[in-house]
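Sharing in case it's useful to others searching the archive later.

Someone asked me privately for the predicted structure of Glycosyltransferase family 4 protein, so I'm posting the question and my answer publicly. Question first, with the sequence:
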Amino acid sequence: MRICLFNWKDCAHPTAGGAETYTREVLTRWAAAGHQVTWFAGAVDGAPEQERREGVTVVRRGGKLGVYAAARAWYARHGAGRFDLLIDEVNTRPFGCASWAGGTPVVALVHQVAREIWSAEFPPPLSWAGRYLAEPLWLHSLRRTPVLTVSASSSDSLREYGIRDIWLVPEGISRRPRPAIPRQARPTVISVGRLAPVKQVDHAIEAFRRLRRDLPAAQLWIVGDGPQRERLERTAPEGVTFHGRVSDEVRDRLLAESHVLVATSLREGWALVVDEAAAMGVPTIGYDRPGLRDSVPAAGGVLVPPNPRALAATLARKLPGLVAEPAEQGWPGGAVSWDELADRFLATALQAAGLLGRESGTGHAASLEHVSGRQH
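And my answer, the predicted structure tokens:
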């Protein structure tokens, strides 16, 4: 099949995150299976306008705001009639592919809605306009488009915007052996993610500050980079180490040396890092927030009320036991291998778009879940 996915970021973008990792893992497997795959994204300084990466043709046009008009213009000139399926991957704002696809089937992929993230990222009145005007208007445009999403939390949020044709697809994860290294001798808490307001890493630091009253030997590792790093470094107490943005291999090593992951985001689609930690034998204590309330229990972790006091109290109770008897490496519930995900995602997209009669990948029997309709 000939497939084109639209996302305003690709993995070359400096703010690429879990959604882009998910997309890359799926698209590269489709390309390896013989499909013709294109990823349209916004321009990135220093990156070519077009290149081939791991079998996927990556096209870059337009900036963060101009990418939407650039996508429509590029498709009219180069894409019309040349694809069998379009995927509108929504990172807050849809591309509106269904309005200009010219009859080519379209499905949307929504990892999460923004909602309260607007208030974390923007001051009023811009945050109010985004949350109560722009986002409802943008998501309203998807009400006639099949929407794929990764968690029950995101499905519930989408229904609140009037979207009914919703299909669940799982998260994916790589099965990598845990590095053969011991845990830290000191009680070690780790936070992994972009240092941006939505991740609320300041909550993790405040919880750690409280934890040290009970466990003065504890340490907190913060893995990731972002606009809040300078402020967080300036205000962090003794015992906090900032590792910056690291490779997957270094991240796995740091996870393997830790005793517990903390997840403090305002909202997630799923939170891939929870699965990555579980695969290294590290449980998560996470906020009871959308997305996290799906991934954390599925990976054997614990949910807490979303405030530093509750997080610190739970860490103080759980961490000594985890130091004495560290968790074992496991396979997170709710996640599948990337190979299986690629097959299931394509089968679900084709079913949602009414194209399931065509070849759907490498042959796995897909388990398709149509949230708002019958079970397949």
